[in-house]
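BUG: 3D viewer hangs when loading the predicted structure for this chain

Environment: internal workstation, default settings.
Expected: structure renders.
Actual: progress bar stalls at 90%.

Input used:
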Amino acid sequence: MLYINNEKLKQISLNYNNFAVLMDFDKTMTTINSVDSWTVLQNPSIVDPKLNIESNKLANIYYPIEMDYNLPYDLKNMHMYDWYSKVLDLYYKYGLTYDKLVSCVNCGNIILRNGLKDLLVRFYKYNIPVFVISAGIGNVIEQVLKLHDCFYDNISIMSNFFTFENDILLPFNNQIIHTCNKTIDLFEDNLKQKVLNKDYILLFGDFIEDLHMIPSKELNRTLSFGFLEKNVEANFDLYRSSFDVVLTNNSSFNDVNTLIDDLIKNKA
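Structure tokens produced before the viewer hung:
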């Protein structure tokens, strides 16, 4: 950890019954060096190599836009929708199947952060609601958690889920979830209330936009953790003014576990 808002921590009194958890997946639950839940499906030995080539061309155009915090929200939102819809079309165009998806994940290099599984085990043990809200591919996230034996029934995933019929990918007709529109409002009310009815919310992300997962009026009772791995010096002040805890240098969830221990021990 590099920064902790100790004044905010003094306002948080955790016990195992009074909080819920919101988590981003790519580069939050996974390491900075991990393949993300999109590109893991572009393994040229399993899928058509043209998918990877065309996807990289799109990334060269849109990734700098995604990382530009000076762009107006509406403009960035429009570009992210365009990018994601074009990449989703590529998976259909190049014939991704369910079997290929599973093979890509099993052979891929998606690496969970150290300490994450221990944290998820703890949340499961105490039946703490965990909501993974991701602009990635939901089928991949689910498969990764299953591979690590930590896809527990207290975990709900809201992401871009592919639909397959007889192993064949169907055209994507669901709402596209991208960097700028991830929010707990995407869940049905009965699930959303499992978060909003708690006294506190723990939120984990790596983009400033991840803070939009929760309505702004709820941020005063939210303890937010931001993983800052790229352009640390340039973005540190922005992250420090946005998140309550800023973690850098490929931090692990061991630090988070320790912090939660302290909050429960000292204030429960």
